[in-house]
Design brief:
The structure holds two protein chains of two kinds. Chain A is an all-beta fold. Chain A is built from no helices and eleven strands. In chain A, 0% of the residues lie in helices and 52% in strands. In chain A, the strands form two sheets. In chain A, strands 2, 4, 5, 6, 9, 10 and 11 form a seven-stranded mixed β-sheet that branches. In chain A, a hairpin with a 3-residue loop joins strand 4 and strand 5. Chain A is globular and about 35 Å long. Chain A starts with a strand and ends with a strand. Chain B is mainly beta. Chain B contains no helices and eleven strands. Chain B starts with a strand and ends with a strand. Classes of the chains: A mainly beta, B mainly beta.
C-alpha cells in the first residue's frame, strides 16, 4: 500500500514565523502535491512537483514556497506565517502521467494554527 | 461559474438507503473523473475513477459519468453507518492535477 506520511498532525505557530511542513512517500512516485483544505472552500492546490528540484505553482501559491531535494520528500514552506494560513494542509503523491491509472494518494494532513 | 459544483449537504439517510451524490462541471477538457471519501480528521482516499461516459461498479458503489451533460454521480447501495463521511468528486486536468468539488457530507443513521 502507498503510504504518504506528513510529519505532524497538529502544529501551532506564531505570526511571522517560518514554518516547514514535511511530506514523505514510500512508493517512488514522481508527482507530489500540496493542498490546503478549508470549510466552504474545499481542497485547493498550492504547489506541485513532477520531479526532483522541479516545482509548479498551483491555484494559490502566494505566501508559500516548496522544496524537493529528494524524490520521496516534498516540503511546504510558509515564509512568514500569517493567521489566514491557518488551515488543514494535505500532501499527495502519484505516478507520473495523466489518467486514472495514476490516482493521487493522500496523507492524513497537518492541522496548522497560526496565532 | 465555478469549475466544479457539488452540494455540500449534509445528506442524512437511514441505513440501507440508496445514496446519490452528484457533481456538475463546466470545462469539457476534463477527461478523468474520480470520487474520494474523506473521514473526519483523515486524508481523502480514492473510491472510484472513470474515464468514459457510462457506469462503473465496484461492490456497493457505482460511478456514473455523462460527459454530454457534464454531470457525474456516485451511487451507494445498501448504505451503512460506516459510509458516513465527506465525498469529494475530482476531475483531472494537466500534469495529473485534480480539481475538486467542495465535498458532500453524508450521514447514515443506524
Amino acid at each position: 500500500d502507498v503510504k504518504v506520511t506528513q510529519s505532524s498532525r497538529y502544529l501551532v505557530k506564531r505570526t511571522g514565523e517560518k514554518v516547514f511542513l514535511e511530506c514523505v512517500q514510500d512508493m517512488d512516485h514522481e508527482n507530489m502535491f500540496w493542498y490546503r483544505q478549508d470549510p466552504g472552500l474545499g481542497l485547493r492546490l498550492i504547489y506541485f512537483s513532477y520531479d526532483v528540484k522541479m516545482k509548479e505553482k498551483g491555484d494559490i501559491p502566494e505566501g508559500y514556497s516548496v522544496s524537493r531535494e529528494k524524490k520521496e520528500r516534498f516540503s511546504l514552506i510558509l515564509e512568514s506565517a500569517s493567521t489566514n494560513q491557518t488551515s488543514m494542509y494535505l500532501c499527495a503523491s502519484s505516478l507520473f502521467g495523466t489518467g486514472s491509472n495514476q490516482p493521487q494518494h493522500f496523507g492524513d494532513g497537518t492541522r496548522l494554527s497560526i496565532l | 461559474q465555478k469549475e466544479v459544483e457539488q452540494d455540500p449537504g449534509p445528506l442524512s439517510v437511514p441505513e440501507g438507503a440508496i445514496v446519490s451524490l452528484n457533481c456538475t462541471y463546466s470545462n469539457s477538457a476534463f477527461q478523468y473523473f474520480m470520487w474520494y471519501r474523506q473521514y473526519s480528521r483523515k486524508g481523502p482516499e480514492l473510491l472510484m475513477y472513470t474515464y468514459s461516459s457510462g457506469n462503473k461498479e465496484d461492490g456497493r458503489f457505482t460511478a456514473q459519468v455523462d460527459k454530454s451533460s457534464k454531470y457525474i454521480s456516485l451511487f451507494i447501495r445498501d448504505s451503512q453507518p460506516s459510509d458516513s463521511a465527506t465525498y469529494l468528486c475530482a476531475l483531472e486536468g494537466g500534469y495529473s492535477t485534480l480539481t475538486f468539488g467542495k465535498g458532500t457530507m453524508l450521514l447514515v443513521s443506524p
